[in-house]
Every structure is written in C-alpha cells, then in structure tokens.
Amino acid sequence: MPHRVNHIAIAVPDLAGALAFWRDALGLPLERRETNPEEGVEIGFLALGELRLELLQPLEPQNSIGRFLEKRGPGLHHMCVEVEDILASLAHLRGQGVELINPTPRTRPDGVRYAFIHPRSTGGVLLELYELP
C-alpha cells in the first residue's frame, strides 16, 4: 500500500498569481509547468523537500477543477501517495468497499499510472494513487 506522499495538489484560478506566492514570495523552486489536456489543467510543479506541490489551474470553467473552484474556491484539491502496484492496491481497496473514481488506472505520457479514490471513502479528502514507472 502507500509508502510516501508524492504531491499535494492545490486548485488555483490563476497559475501565475499562485506562483507569485509559492515561488516568488515563499521561494519554492518551480520544477516545471505543463498543460494536461486530458485532465483540462495547466500545472505548476514546485519542490518542497521530498514532495511536490502541484498547482492546478483549469483550462475550462466546467471541468472538474473549474467546478471545484466554483463550489469551494481555491485550496487543497487532493493528496497523492505512491504505491508499488496500483492494480493490486485498487483491487484491495475495492475489496474493502472503497469507492473508486477510477476503477482502472490512467497512464500519463511519462509512464506514471494513477487513479483517484472518492472523498466519500476517505473522510472527505480526494486521494490519488501513483505508480511510478
């Protein structure tokens, strides 16, 4: 099961504005920016020790991050933990009655496999599982 936190994701309405705080004022190094059209977000990845902050700006107001911002405003969106075997982890969680948003993992272009667990099963926190290549 999980062995470390990979990243904490924060939904932001304006990535440049968020970077003005996290990078410029606080001094966290920006590792990279990328656009993920499949998820409909522009992302800024910042280093914070062993983990990363992932700043998520929606590309469209009606995607999941846009709806999150409209409903809750900017703030913590999800936490991501690494697992050794995402298929085994999902099977185990399903066997425990956990509600999965992604019953099968998605794969990023860099080979990372990921899936989300519904907040109804986690006490209110959207949880992402990552299996690194």
Write up what this structure looks like.
With 133 residues, the protein is α+β, with helices and mostly antiparallel strands. It has 2 domains: 1-78, 2,3-Dihydroxybiphenyl 1,2-Dioxygenase, domain 1 (Roll); 83-133, 2,3-Dihydroxybiphenyl 1,2-Dioxygenase, domain 1. 23% of the residues lie in helices and 39% in strands. It contains 3 helices and 8 strands, in the order E-H-E-E-E-H-E-H-E-E-E. The protein has helices at 15-25, 64-72, 86-95; strands at 4-11, 30-36, 41-48, 51-58, 75-82, 106-107, 113-117, 126-131. The chain has an 8-stranded mixed sheet with strand order 2-3-4-1-5-8-7-6. The chain is globular. The two termini are 16 Å apart.
Mean pLDDT: 95
Described by strand count, sense and barrel closure, the largest sheet is: 8 strands, mixed
User: Counting H and I runs of at least 4 residues, what is the number of helices?
Assistant: 3
Task: Tell me the structural class.
Answer: alpha+beta
CATH top level of the largest domain is Alpha Beta
CATH T-level topology of the largest domain: 2,3-Dihydroxybiphenyl 1,2-Dioxygenase, domain 1
- How many strand elements? 8
Strand adjacency order, main sheet? 2-3-4-1-5-8-7-6
CATH architecture classification of the largest domain = Roll
How far apart the termini lie comes to 16 Å
Sum up the overall morphology in one term.
globular
Helix-strand topology string: EHEEEHEHEEE
Over all CA atoms, what is the radius of gyration?
A: 15 Å
Low-confidence stretches: none
Number of domains: 2
The share of residues in helices is 10-25%
* CATH homologous superfamily designation of the largest domain: 2,3-Dihydroxybiphenyl 1,2-Dioxygenase, domain 1
